[in-house]
Amino acid sequence: MGKVVAIANQKGGVGKTTTAVNLAASLAASERPVLLVDSDPQANTTSALGFPRDQGRRSLYQGLIFGEPLQNLLVPTVVSRLQLVHSDKNLVGATVELVSVENREFRLREAIAPLRPNYEFIVIDCPPALDLLTINALCAADSVLIPIQCEYLALEGVSELLDTLMRIRRRLNPQLAIEGILPTMYDERTTLSRQVVADLRDFFGSQVFASVIPRSVRLAEAPSHGKPIMLYEPNSRGCQSYMQLAQEVLANDKKSAGQGAERAAS
């Protein structure tokens, strides 16, 4: 069964979409079949992989609202072994339309379930809000990866997100784990960036990834070319950082599988 990882932070501009695209691409480059689900109505993940905005194209909206099987919505990407479920602006309406739907928090989990045997990882890019789309992603996920920009204001929203995760664990998805906290837009030249990372490690300990994503012009440019950083600038520090992150995620998965086997044997 594929592991479902939601990339979530209610703050915008923290590198969430950049992380979703490049982590998924890096996992696929490690010869794992990967599905990337764009659940953000802004559809930045969709455009970052080279797909122009197209209102005639079916998207995750049809899957959530009309029950269209996601199998029918899959498209290949420029990265081998990486497939995508598109987003579009219709998803804005889904947050309203889902309110009156039975089991509204679990629509995405139900939609993803038939696909899990086909992938080792399913990565969900969430919108920058704690709305029904994000809640659906967190209910569908096995774990959540939290990108945090290396600025003090970015730290202020972390407690709110963690409170939401605790409520979802209690009421909706008790198996939801924290995959890790990822420092992003790190500038090693500034004391502020170094201090934010140090504070994160002091407070969250091993939950903070060893990988740190640098502030990078190449990472910022890659989406405009419709490519992940591994295809746009494979020798860049940004690419190396995301490949390292993918290895950490793979190690987490191997560790979780080992712990599960131990529990089953005991």
What can you tell me about this protein's structure?
- It is a single chain.
- With 266 residues, the chain is of the alpha/beta class.
- The chain is built from 12 helices and 7 strands.
- A 7-stranded mixed sheet has the order 3-4-2-5-1-6-7, sandwiched between helices.
- A hairpin with a 5-residue loop joins β3 (74-76) and β4.
- It starts with a strand and ends with a helix.
- The model has no long low-confidence stretch (mean pLDDT 92).
* Fraction of helical residues: 40-55%
Largest sheet: 7 strands, mixed
* Overall pLDDT: 92
Distance between the termini: 22 Å
Number of helices: 12
The count of strands amounts to 7
Q: Rg from C-alpha positions? A: 17 Å
**General form:** globular
What spatial order of strands do you see in the largest sheet? 3-4-2-5-1-6-7
Counting helices, strands and paired strands, the structural category is alpha/beta
